[in-house]
Amino acid sequence: MAFSIAEVARMSKVTSRTLRHYDNVGLLAPAFVGANGYRYYEQAQLLRLQQILLLRELGLGLGAIAEVLAGDRDQVAALRQHERWLHSERDRLGQLADTVSRTIRQLQGEHEMSAPELFEGFADRQAQLEEDLVTEHGDGVREHFRHARGVTKEWTQQDYLDAQRRGEELDNKVLAVMQSGAAPDSDAALEVMAEHYGEVAQFWTPDRASYTGLGRMYVDNPEFKARYDAKGTGLAEYLRDATAAYAEQRLG
Question: What's the first-to-final CA gap in the chain, in angstroms?
């Protein structure tokens, strides 16, 4: 029995747009395409979609999922890597919760904190992110992080908050463009990505390859993927594709 893409979307709670994207990236091809141009799925494709959704729930990016399904990556090893990340994140969030608690007590006049203590829990995550990127892209990534640390060395708490606010505003702009139906390589998307590139370039100057790699990280890194998916389903993939389009068209 074959199911239309709309039927599969209803059953799986996955949008038709996402199913088309899975097809475009070679992750889930339909059983066949009808004369009307619609994609149709049979039992084998539904089982594969179930696997994809399970691996996504466990935090794997689409690149890692493709490797698992192709047999190029051991599923247990992939899950163990994610397990290590979860334990690390649990410890970091515990430290951040402690930092926030002590900050509240300071604001209430019950506790005194030094300036470095205000940022406990942030540097550890940056170090973990650096190691993750070095594993994927090589030691050249370390120079980018060294440069970024130099840029932010004298930053105040307000500087960090301002950077966070700008990042949130950019995320919302990308989301708005995506929800308008504009393609990732449209003029509207490229204009927003020009702002994104400018923000990134404050810390390091990516070339075509490294900026494209940054976009892939938004999907492949569980933390970034979860952050963008919380804002809008498909946002991480859209941002990845828009980053690649900007790199191709503007960083040639």
Answer: 47
Comparing CA positions, the residue from 36, 38, 45 lying closest to residue 6 is 38
Instruction: With beta carbons less than 8 A apart as the criterion, state whether 32 and 40 touch.
Output: yes
- In this predicted model, what pLDDT tens digit does every residue of 23-68 receive, in sequence order? 998 999 999 999 989 999 999 899 889 888 877 776 667 777 888 8
Let me know: does 19 contact 5? Beta carbons within 8 Å.
Answer: yes
Domain spans, the chain: 3-57, 156-250
**What is the pTM assigned to this prediction?**
0.52
Q: Which tokens hold the place of 101?
A: 């608690």
CA distance 191 to 176: 13
Please state, in angstroms and rounded to a whole number, the distance separating the CA atoms of residues 108 and 159.
23
The hierarchical CATH code for the domain 3-57 is 1.10.1660.10
**Distance in angstroms (rounded) separating the CA atoms of residues 4 and 37:** 11
190-241 pLDDT, tens digit each: 999 999 999 988 888 888 988 898 898 888 877 788 778 778 888 999 999 9
Which ranges of 58-156 does DSSP label H, i.e. alpha helix? 62-70, 75-107, 122-137, 141-152
Residue 125's closest CA among 167, 95, 154? 95
The fold adopted by the segment(s) 156-250 is Globin-like (1.10.490)
For residue 50, what are its two tokens?
């179930």
> What CA–CA distances, in Å, run from 144 to 133, 147, 204?
11, 5, 6
